[in-house]
Design goal:
This protein has 309 residues and is an alpha/beta fold. The chain is 44% helix and 12% strand. Strands 2-1-6-5-7-4-3 form a seven-stranded mixed sheet, sandwiched between helices. A hairpin with a 6-residue loop joins strand 1 (12-14) and strand 2. Helix 2 packs parallel to helix 3 (134-146), helix 5 (170-183) packs across helix 11 and helix 7 (205-213) crosses helix 11. The longest helix has 26 residues, at 283-308. Residues 1-10, 18-28, 30-47 and 122-128 have low confidence and may be disordered. This is Trab domain-containing protein. It comes from Citrus sinensis.
Length: 309
């Protein structure tokens, strides 16, 4: 370990199968973890022993294995499926990480979405009883308690949104923008959203709604779910081959896909490729530029709207 780490800290590792890099964050993410250790030194990870999850914690867990360069020669990967907006999922994630104390905690996040782990993000959902992605914050805090490594293993959201937009036929782009512009004023209230979340407490709401929206926009499942299943399976395998124990926290809708692609060849370069813009200025290019800017908001808007139905 570098005896003089940079001031911004290096608590998060974003694994890119094409080029591994460190994501440095400021003190806003340290807050509670630094309070627990005024010297800012990591607590040594306990020596690894084979642990078996108790039955009450294993219902949402898929266990994968692979060869590893770490001591012991193998890695156990505990793939924990969450509902993304669920108190029960938060409790399960906390209990599983506390019990296993893995070397690595792998999160379904990228560097652009790391703000979900900061306490400031709580203000955005101040009227909600629980906010989307709370289980990631819980996982991070548990890892920090014993000095575990936190890895951000999802594909960058900008690439996902751009590929989603570019794969849509022109008519679907127009339809999505129209849906966003016309229906954005009819988002559910905080009270309605809380009620809806309670009703879907044990369901990966995000994936289910993407499936529903895919009836109108068929390419959504491919880019928002299946491609990310491949990407995360590849990054998770890369991490696992260098460690002896990993807990991966992902939405339940990604469990089967990551398992299916485990140890399979994945065209990572293709999944990271963004189509080159056409040189000619045209109405389609203007529409594309506008669409990329609002596609993410439009998709999220559609998710809320579909959940309310």
């Amino acid at each position: 370990m570098d005896p003089n780490p940079p001031e911004s800290g290096e608590e998060f590792v974003h694994v890119d199968p094409l080029s591994e890099s460190i994501v440095s964050l400021g003190d806003e993410v340290r807050d509670e973890s630094s309070d627990r250790d005024e010297t800012n030194g990591a607590v040594p990870v306990p020596e690894e022993t084979k642990k078996v999850l108790p039955e009450e914690l294993s219902s949402s867990v898929v266990i994968l294995t692979c060869d590893s360069t770490a001591e012991g020669g193998t890695c156990d990967v505990y793939l924990v499926g969450t509902a993304h907006v669920s108190k029960e999922s938060c409790r399960e994630v906390e209990a599983i990480i506390d019990f296993l104390k893995p070397q690595v905690v792998f999160l379904e996040l990228c560097s652009s979405r790391v703000s979900m782990l900061t306490p400031q993000n709580l203000k955005v959902a101040s009227h909600l009883e629980i906010f989307p992605g709370s289980e990631f914050r819980v996982a991070f805090e548990e890892a920090m308690k014993y000095g575990g490594k936190v890895i951000l293993g999802d594909r960058p959201v900008q690439i996902t949104l751009r590929r989603t937009w570019e794969k849509m036929p022109l008519w679907h782009k127009i339809k999505l923008l129209y849906s966003f512009l016309f229906q954005a004023f009819f988002l559910p209230s905080a009270e309605d959203l809380n009620r809806m979340l309670k009703e879907m407490d044990d369901v990966d709401m995000l994936t289910l709604v993407i499936q529903e929206m895919s009836k109108a926009f068929p390419t959504l499942m491919e880019t928002l779910v299946h491609e990310r299943d491949q990407y995360m399976s590849s990054t998770l395998l890369k991490v696992a081959t260098e460690h002896s124990s990993v807990v991966a926290v992902v939405g339940k809708g990604h469990l089967q896909g990551i398992k299916n692609y485990w140890k399979q060849p994945v065209p990572v370069h293709d999944l990271m490729t963004i189509p080159s813009p056409k040189p000619a200025v045209s109405a389609l290019k203007v529409l594309s530029s506008l669409g990329v800017a609002v596609a993410g908001v439009a998709i999220i808007s559609g998710i809320y709207i579909n959940c309310k139905k």
